[in-house]
Amino acid sequence: MVQDVYVRIMQHVDAANLMDRPRGYLLLTARNVILDRDRQRRARAEHDARILGSGSGSTSHGETPENLLQSHEGLEILKRVLLTLPPDHRQVFLLSRMEELSYREIGERLGISIRSVERYMSETLLLLQEKLEHCL
Known about the structure:
Layout: H1 2-11, H2 16-20, H3 22-52, H4 65-83, H5 87-97, H6 103-110, H7 114-135
Helix pairs in contact: 1-3, 4-7, 5-7, 6-7
């Protein structure tokens, strides 16, 4: 997040607010970065839900041993399915879902365009849906 704030400030270094009230400008920029990340996370979740279907999506705090066993088995199935994906797709998926990086951050890290990241994620989600339907 610090890097994103720094980049935004450097893009607008000539802004009058930066010179008049640098602390206020820094705090406002940080707030905007946080809001943007939250918006991206929600948009990504909505996109995933549209592709994968609504499903139950909710988890209960009162997990039974049976539910825990089923979720553990589900994770094992997911792990096996992830290993069947093309390496670039798997890497994009894991950076997005496990490290919670934005598509822009993933693109920068891997040296690919945001459009490629979006395409990989879309293809990966469809592949996961198909393969998981066959496993379950």
